[in-house]
Amino acid sequence: MTGTERTDALDLERQVCFPLYAASNLVNRAYRPILSPLGLTYPQYLVMLVLWQDGCRSVGALGERLYLDSGTLTPMLKRLEAQGLVRRVRDNADERRVNVSLTDEGAALRERAQSVPATMFGACTNWQEDQLHDLRHAVNELIDALNRRDEAAKPEAVTRRKPQAAVPD
Amino acid sequence: MTGTERTDALDLERQVCFPLYAASNLVNRAYRPILSPLGLTYPQYLVMLVLWQDGCRSVGALGERLYLDSGTLTPMLKRLEAQGLVRRVRDNADERRVNVSLTDEGAALRERAQSVPATMFGACTNWQEDQLHDLRHAVNELIDALNRRDEAAKPEAVTRRKPQAAVPD
DNA sequence: TTGATTTATATTGCGCGCAATATATTTTCA
DNA sequence: TGAAAATATATTGCGCGCAATATAAATCAA
């Protein structure tokens, strides 16, 4: 109302993706001191979560779970291998694939990681379980929407990634 | 129930921060083809949003708005300067500061950016305004919670960044 | 079977993010 | 005033993310 011409659509406060971007950076920062004693970065921690949960997985399967491609995963997995946490072995049945599995040390690290979620959110006062639940739900719906948009954009070809649907709720 | 010992807290599906991380990556990817014709990356676009909205700002003030520090901003602002979109000038009153302002070209770019939000979310079918609103609200609450946690962690010193409260709703 | 296409991973180059550190300026206060 | 502390930005080094490209293996088609 002050007279200067302003188009609200470009106001930072109107953006939906900026809080997402900022929160992702803040989360990464918050995890760093918690994961550092385990020798892991946050993306590396996510890879370990998948392997602890699913066991041996190909590079492509890890990428589908985490929405990442080989350009990101290959160097990251090599670092985890150099640390002795995972093995990278060519698949005998299909020599194109590389199977990633846990070493004994990688599997053992799970015990030390048990306290990570509680450390992360235990210190986060004033934050209730159901709010986290709502947030997870809302973000997962955005992920679904972005994936549907990608599929709609190129209907005649397979999408670059074929991520499974975001986890329900 | 299958007998293998499993601790749910480390399941990927239980994580709150992973969808945030994945969504942030997907958003960055989705913005790329939209911003590429403008010669901007998504973080650069955010800087331009602040400058279009606030006008001339110091590096530190930009960092408070975007939750970034000089280690990220300085090289980014140099790239924007090399493109002729912004100016970086030492503050006469306080020679420690560097003020960042728009060039004519940078200010003019705003017109071409007007269509960016609609392009981003216009193609996103099945996604309602109020869902985006809820998402923004939920993520902003997490940002506030993480900031409160940081302040609580080191009460005797000023926090590394002093971000203003996340935008209300 | 062979040649073309598809699939899986690796490589290259670039732009973030950020901790740690360095440098220069300003403020504090003894 | 003058030394110490605080403040603002810059630099360094490293680990992502990802588009584009390369390479090799598997599949498909003629």
UniProtKB/TrEMBL annotation, chains A, B:
Gene3D superfamilies (alphabetical): Winged helix-like DNA-binding domain superfamily/Winged helix DNA-binding domain
Entry's Gene Ontology molecular function annotations: DNA binding; DNA-binding transcription factor activity
Domain HTH marR-type, first and last residues per copy: 13-144
Transmembrane segment boundaries: none
A Pfam family annotated for this UniProt entry: Staph_reg_Sar_Rot
Cellular compartment(s): Cytoplasm
GO biological process, one term: response to stress
Cellular component GO terms, alphabetical: cytoplasm
UniProt entry keywords in alphabetical sequence: Cytoplasm, DNA-binding, Transcription, Transcription regulation
Biased composition regions of type Basic and acidic residues, renumbered to the chain: 150-159
Primary location: cytoplasm
Region of interest called Disordered, as start-end residue ranges on this chain: 150-169
Protein name: DNA-binding MarR family transcriptional regulator
